[in-house]
Each structure stands twice: as structure tokens, then as C-alpha cells.
UniProtKB/TrEMBL annotation:
Belongs to the TsuA/YedE (TC 9.B.102) family. The chain crosses the membrane at residues 45-62, 82-103. It comes from Niabella yanshanensis. This is YeeE/YedE thiosulfate transporter family protein. InterPro entries: Sulf_transp_TsuA/YedE (IPR007272).
């Protein structure tokens, strides 16, 4: 339950968010990302439409979702699930550390 106080983040995180054009750090959901006026921007298009397509394509191509492969497939010692989980994790690391900072600066 919220007490009405502003969200408190470290100055280092606030400085990093400013490099991604996110300056509203008073709320839990920054207005530069989570608002109706920013919904029809290039950044939102890439994150929503292209991201949604890639999730659907990856799920179909890998023959299942991330949790299905990582939990059930690995517990059954299935080689394809190990390969799929490694690819999911690698893709997540690349997206979070390489592509997302570039997209956020658009």
C-alpha cells in the first residue's frame, strides 16, 4: 500500500535514467515510458510491436515458452530445452544491455 511519498531512488540510477531520456523519477512508472502521449512514438512502437513479434516468433521457433523449457525441459534433461534456455538468456542479456539503451535514447 502506498503512503503517498515520492519514489526514492539513488542519484546514480537517476543519472542513468536521464541518459535514457527518462527524467520523471517521482513516480513508480515514469511518464516518459508509461503515458498515453508517449504511446504513439517510435520508441513505443519498437518496444510494443517489434518486441511482441519477437516474443511470439521466438516461442514458436523454440517450440515452447521460456518457463516451459527452463522448468520442465531442463528437469527432464532435454537437450533442446538446454539450448533454448541458453538462447533465451543470451537474448535477454543482449536486449537489456545493448539494444534497450539504444532504443531508450530514441
Amino acid at each position: 500500500m502506498s503512503n503517498g511519498d515520492a519514489v526514492s531512488i539513488t542519484p546514480a540510477l537517476a543519472a542513468e535514467l536521464r541518459t535514457y531520456n527518462v527524467t520523471d523519477t517521482r513516480h513508480l512508472l515514469p511518464q516518459e515510458i508509461f503515458s498515453w502521449q508517449h504511446l504513439l512514438t517510435l520508441r513505443s512502437f519498437i518496444l510494443l510491436v517489434v518486441g511482441g513479434f519477437l516474443v511470439g516468433f521466438g516461442t514458436r521457433y523454440a517450440g515452447g515458452c521460456t518457463s516451459g523449457h527452463a522448468i520442465m525441459g531442463l528437469s527432464n534433461l532435454q537437450w533442446p530445452s538446454l539450448v533454448a534456455t541458453i538462447c533465451f538468456m543470451t537474448g535477454g542479456f543482449v536486449m537489456a544491455n545493448v539494444l534497450l539503451p539504444v532504443i531508450m535514447k530514441l
